[in-house]
C-alpha cells in the first residue's frame, strides 16, 4: 500500500468560533427517530459575517430562528446547512440562533440498537471522528471546542447519560416520559459528545468528591462491581503521574453494544460488553488495559485535543503509553515490559506487512486512516524513547506543563515540541523530525569482537533502515550492558552515522554484551551471539532479554545444551511469557521427545503456558491423549486452554467426537473462543475422514 498516494488533507478554515450548544431532543424509541433543536452561541472570526454554515447530515431542518424567535433564511444541502443572518456581525459580537430539526432514518452517528437476549434496547452515540453532524447540526471538527447542554426526553423506563453534570430530571406523567438535563461546563470537541440511552443499572462509586459511576446492563451488576473496581485507583494514578488532577465533573463508564473495545467521550467512556467479565472470563480476557487507556483519554484527547487529524498521536500515542505506565505501576515490571514488546511488535507487523508512514501525516482519505499501529503503539514507543533521552524527571515535568499550558485547547505537534524546549531547555527538534515526521524505525546489525591480546572489546553498530525510502539514519543514544562475574556495567553511546565502532577495555571478555540495555529503542535487531552467551542471558537478563534469548537459541536448536535449557525454562522461569516461549520452541523443534514437559506445562499456573502446552500436546497427534484433552476441556477454568483442548481433539479425533464438539460449539464464551475452536476441530476431523 502506497500511503503517499493519499490526498493531502489540511485543517480547514472556519468563519466563527462556536461557544455553546444547547441541544434538546425528544427521542421516539419505538420509531427509532427524534425531533430536536440546537441553540447555538458563537462569535465571528471575521468582521463581516453574514452567513453561517453548519455540518448537518441526514437531518430534516424545519426552522431556523434568531435569538428573538424570528425566522432566518436557510438552505440545506446534502451535508451542509447554510444560514443567512439578519445582519452582518463582527468579531466583537456574540450571536445566538436555534436550528429545529428531525432525524427519521438510521445513521451511524447515533445508533438505535434492538433488544436481544443479551442486551437491552439502547440508543448509543458514535460521534468519532465526524459523525456528531448526523444527529446535531453543528460545526464538527476537533479544533473547535464548545460547552454543551444535552436535554433529552425519553420513556420513563429509560435512563440517559451525557457529558458533564446532571442538572436534573423532570417528569411528564401524562406522556409517561421524563427529561434528563446534562450540562458540560468546560469546552470540548464535538466528536467527544456522548448520548447513551437504555434501561441501565447505575453503580455508584467515587474518588474523593469525584463521582465515578458504571452504567451497565442489569445482568452485569455483580460482575461490573468487580470488573470496574480499580477505576478510581487508575484515575488517582494518572492524577499523580500527569501532575494534573482529573479535569471533568464526573467520570462514567457505560456499556455500549456496538463498541468492540472502547471509545472516549468527555467525562465518560463507552465500553464494549466484554468490559464486564465473569471471574472465569477475567483469566484471559481482562479489559483492565483498555479501561486504563480510555481513562487516559480524559486528559489526552479530551483535555488537550489534536487540532487536526494528522496530530492524532497526541490523543492515541499518549493514551497507549499511559496504559503501559499504569501496567508498570500496578502489574509489575515484567508484565509492563512484555506489554511494551507486544506494542512494538504490533507496529513492526504493520510496517513490515502493510506500510510505513510518518506518525504526523496529513495524507489521508478519511481521519480513520491515521488511527493505526503508527498512531497507537509506534507513538507509544516513541514516547518511551523520548523519556529515555530526556530522563524521567524532565519527561514528566514536560507532560504536566503541556496539560496545564494547553488545557481545554486544540493542540498541534508543534505545541508539544515547544513545550519540550521550554521545560527541558533542550532543542529536541532533531528527535521529532526523525521519529514523528519521517517514516520507519531503526534496523540494527550489531557485531562484536574480543581481542584477548589487548583486552579490548570492539562493538560495531550498523543502521541499515535507509534501504527504505524516506527512512533516515537515526541520531539516538543506546545503552550497552556488559555482564561480568562480579556484576554489570552500562555505557551509553550516541549513534549518529550508518556505521559506528566503539572500543571498551576490560580485564576479561564479558559474559554477555547486551545491546539496548533497558529496552528503550524501537528497533529490529540482528545480533549474532554465541550459544554460551545466550544461555547466560536466559538466566541473568531482564524479562525482555530472556525472551529474546529464548528465541535466538533457535540457531542452536540441535544442541543438547539449548534443548535442556528450553526444557528448564518451560518449567522454571519466573515470568509466564518466557515459559510459554520455551514451550513453543520445544514444540517447534523437538516436540516428540518432550511430551513430559508439555504435560507438566498443561498444569502451569499461567493459562497462557497451559494453552501453549496443550497446543504442543495436540501436535503430537497421540490418540492415547484423547481422554486427557476431554478432561482438560471439562476442568480447566481458562477459555483459551479449553479452546486448545478442542483443537487438539480435532487433531486426533474421529467422527465419534463430532457430537461432543458440536455441543462445545454451543457454549457461550468470550469472542466465541470455544465456538471457533470447536468448528475448527470438526472441520479438521471431516477433512481427515
Percent of residues in helical segments? Answer: 25-40%
- Gyration radius from CA atoms, angstroms: 29 Å
Average pLDDT for all residues:
97
Low-confidence stretches: none
CATH top-level class of the domain at 1-199: Mainly Beta
Largest sheet: 7 strands, mixed
**CATH architecture descriptor text of the domain at 1-199:** Sandwich
CATH topology-level name of the domain at 1-199? Immunoglobulin-like
Strand content: 25-35%
Domain Aminopeptidase N-like N-terminal: 19-192
Keywords: Aminopeptidase, Hydrolase, Metal-binding, Metalloprotease, Protease, Zinc
Cofactor: Zn(2+)
Organism: Lunatimonas lonarensis
Structure description:
It is a single chain. By secondary structure, the chain is an alpha+beta fold. Among the domains are: 1-199, tricorn interacting facor f3 domain (Immunoglobulin-like, Sandwich); 308-435, Neutral Protease, domain 2, CATH 1.10.390; 441-528, Aminopeptidase N, middle-beta domain (Immunoglobulin-like). 35% of the residues lie in helices and 28% in strands. It has 20 helices and 28 strands. Strands 4-7-2-1-10-13-12 form a seven-stranded mixed sheet, with no helix packed on it. Strands 15-16-17-19-18 form a five-stranded mixed sheet, with helices on one face. Helix 2 (231-242) packs across helix 4 (288-296) and helix 14 packs parallel to helix 16 (607-619). Its EC number is 3.4.11.2. Belongs to the peptidase M1 family.
Amino acid at each position: 500500500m502506497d500511503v503517499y498516494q493519499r490526498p493531502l488533507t489540511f485543517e480547514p478554515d472556519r468563519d466563527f468560533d462556536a461557544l455553546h450548544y444547547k441541544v434538546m431532543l425528544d427521542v421516539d424509541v419505538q420509531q427509532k427517530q427524534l425531533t430536536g433543536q440546537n441553540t447555538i452561541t458563537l462569535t465571528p472570526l471575521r468582521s463581516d459575517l453574514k452567513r453561517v454554515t453548519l455540518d448537518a447530515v441526514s437531518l430534516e431542518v424545519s426552522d431556523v430562528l434568531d435569538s428573538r424567535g424570528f425566522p432566518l433564511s436557510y438552505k440545506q444541502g446534502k451535508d451542509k446547512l447554510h444560514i443567512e443572518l439578519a445582519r452582518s456581525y463582527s468579531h466583537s459580537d456574540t450571536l445566538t440562533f436555534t436550528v429545529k430539526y428531525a432525524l427519521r432514518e438510521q445513521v451511524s452517528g447515533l445508533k438505535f440498537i434492538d433488544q436481544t437476549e443479551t442486551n437491552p434496547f439502547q440508543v448509543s452515540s458514535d460521534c468519532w471522528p465526524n459523525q456528531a453532524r448526523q444527529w446535531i447540526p453543528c460545526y464538527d471538527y476537533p479544533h473547535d471546542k464548545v460547552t454543551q447542554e444535552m436535554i433529552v426526553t425519553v420513556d420513563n423506563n429509560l435512563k440517559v447519560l451525557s457529558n458533564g453534570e446532571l442538572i436534573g430530571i423532570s417528569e411528564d406523567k401524562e406522556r409517561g416520559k421524563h427529561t434528563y438535563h446534562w450540562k458540560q461546563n468546560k469546552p470540548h470537541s464535538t466528536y467527544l459528545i456522548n448520548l447513551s440511552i437504555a434501561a441501565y443499572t447505575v453503580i455508584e462509586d467515587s474518588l474523593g468528591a469525584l463521582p465515578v459511576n458504571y452504567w451497565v446492563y442489569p445482568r452485569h451488576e455483580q460482575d461490573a462491581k468487580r470488573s470496574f473496581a480499580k477505576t478510581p485507583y487508575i484515575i488517582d494514578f494518572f492524577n499523580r503521574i500527569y501532575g494534573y488532577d482529573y479535569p471533568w465533573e464526573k467520570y462514567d463508564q457505560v456499556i455500549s453494544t456496538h463498541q468492540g473495545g472502547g471509545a472516549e467521550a468527555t467525562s465518560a467512556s463507552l465500553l464494549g460488553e466484554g468490559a464486564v467479565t465473569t471471574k472465569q472470563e477475567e483469566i484471559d480476557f481482562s479489559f483492565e488495559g483498555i479501561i486504563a487507556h480510555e481513562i487516559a483519554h480524559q486528559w489526552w484527547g479530551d483535555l488537550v485535543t489534536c487540532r487536526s487529524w494528522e496530530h492524532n498521536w497526541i490523543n492515541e500515542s499518549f493514551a497507549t503509553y499511559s496504559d503501559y505506565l499504569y501496567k508498570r505501576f500496578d502489574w509489575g515490571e515484567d508484565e509492563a515490559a512484555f506489554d511494551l514488546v507486544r506494542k512494538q511488535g504490533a507496529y513492526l507487523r504493520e510496517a513490515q506487512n502493510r506500510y510505513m508512514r510518518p506518525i504526523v501525516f496529513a495524507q489521508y482519505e478519511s481521519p480513520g486512516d491515521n488511527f493505526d499501529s503508527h498512531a497507537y503503539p509506534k507513538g507509544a514507543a516513541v514516547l518511551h524513547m523520548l523519556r529515555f533521552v530526556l530522563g524521567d524527571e524532565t519527561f514528566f515535568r514536560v507532560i504536566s506543563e503541556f496539560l496545564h499550558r494547553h488545557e481545554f485547547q486544540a493542540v498541534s505537534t508543534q505545541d508539544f515540541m515547544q513545550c519540550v524546549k521550554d521545560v527541558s531547555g533542550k532543542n529536541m527538534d532533531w528527535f521529532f523530525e526523525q521519529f514523528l515526521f519521517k517514516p520507519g524505525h531503526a534496523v540494527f546489525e550489531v557485531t562484536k569482537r574480543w581481542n584477548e591480546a589487548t583486552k579490548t572489546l570492539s562493538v560495531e553498530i550498523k543502521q541499515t533502515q535507509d534501504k527504505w525510502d524516506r527512512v533516515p539514519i537515526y541520531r539516538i543514544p543506546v545503552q550497552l550492558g556488559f555482564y561480568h562475574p562480579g556484576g554489570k556495567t552500562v555505557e551509553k553511546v550516541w549513534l549518529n552515522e550508518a556505521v559506528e565502532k566503539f572500543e571498551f577495555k576490560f580485564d576479561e571478555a564479558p559474559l554477555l554484551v547486551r545491546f539496548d540495555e533497558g529496552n528503550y529503542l524501537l528497533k529490529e535487531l540482528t545480533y549474532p551471539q554465541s550459544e554460551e552467551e545466550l544461555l547466560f542471558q536466559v538466566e541473568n537478563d531482564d524479562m525482555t532479554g530472556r525472551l529474546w534469548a529464548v528465541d535466538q537459541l533457535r540457531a542452536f536448536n540441535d544442541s543438547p545444551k539449548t534443548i535442556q535449557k528450553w526444557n528448564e525454562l518451560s518449567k522454571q522461569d519466573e515470568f509466564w511469557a518466557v515459559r510459554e516461549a520455551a514451550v513453543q520452541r520445544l514444540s517447534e523443534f523437538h516436540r516428540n521427545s518432550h511430551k513430559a514437559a508439555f504435560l507438566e506445562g498443561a498444569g502451569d499456573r499461567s493459562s497462557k503456558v497451559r494453552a501453549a502446552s496443550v497446543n504442543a500436546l495436540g501436535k503430537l497427534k497421540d490418540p492415547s491423549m484423547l481422554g486427557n484433552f476431554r478432561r482438560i476441556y471439562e476442568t480447566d477454568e481458562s477459555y483459551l486452554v479449553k479452546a486448545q483442548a478442542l483443537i487438539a481433539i480435532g487433531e486426533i479425533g474421529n467422527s465419534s467426537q463430532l457430537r461432543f464438539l458440536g455441543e462445545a460449539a454451543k457454549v457461550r464464551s468470550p469472542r466465541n473462543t470455544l465456538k471457533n475452536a470447536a468448528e475448527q476441530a470438526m472441520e479438521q476431523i471431516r477433512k481427515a475422514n
